[in-house]
Amino acid sequence: MRVFITGGTGLIGSAVVAELLGHGHTVLALARSDASARAAKEAGAEPLRGGLADLDVLRAGAAQAEGVIHLAFANDFSGADALAQAVAEESAALAALGEELDGSDRPIVAASGTPLAPGRASTEADPAMTEGPVGGRGRAVTAILDLAERGVRSTAVRLPRTVHNQGQGGFAGLLTGIARQTGVSGYLGDGTQRWPAVHALDAAVLFRLALETAPAGTAWHAVADEGDQVRDIAAVIGRRLGLPVESVPPETYGPLAPIFAADQPSSSAHTRQALGWEPKHPSLLEDLEQIQP
Length: 293
Description:
By secondary structure, the chain is α/β, with parallel strands linked by helices. It folds into 2 domains: 2-162 and 198-224, Rossmann fold; 166-195 and 226-266 and 283-290. Helix content is 41%, strand content 19%. The chain has 11 helices and 12 strands. α1 crosses α7 (200-213) and α4 (80-101) packs parallel to α5 (135-146). The chain is globular, with a radius of gyration of 18 Å.
């Protein structure tokens, strides 16, 4: 299958590209810079110059492909306005991709986030989160899933709080960066809130499986670790960096504070049973041992 991918040179995307190429697919990768284009080409993909805001380029990429995987996101967490702009940009991009695929019977796999289910681990049957700082992402992916009624084999791979590789990535990576800046490896409240996680190489396998076989209108959980307590994550970061580990005020995390404070464990039992997906790579706490001081 010829696959058009956005975000193909990031931590998750580079793993997905390698997984696709390793299983006989060819890849057309959106590249917003010369450096990204070189990285895509070196990985074995064909670059297509453009960014997530270039809707005509996105439509052209989808038109040239037999399937689409969407991973790109601005990841600008510097403030509420920047985050809202990133969400709006992604929403417009997904709408453009959906328009191009309408009625084609081709697959699109959109990255999403695991939902919140108070008092328990969320499952694939729970609805996407459509409120809060990143609620717009949930609404955009829900619209993509609704394309199942319009002749699109649309699916969502819901990613956990941290997708990691070699001690980097995801919200745990943000915690590491903030710890380096502030001199404290912190957490909100008592730190007992739980974050699910998955290794990027395991997540990549699920994106491929969803692209190849998942039924239209379905959502899947790329969750290997159901939920590590944030204070345990912070403890590993603090030990690796030689920093104190303690509770910090919400403003430390800016617009992400409500998300960082939430207890949000998640299950992937249905995904494993239905698609035969089985994570094989190191857990988050094991992987964080690779953080360099």
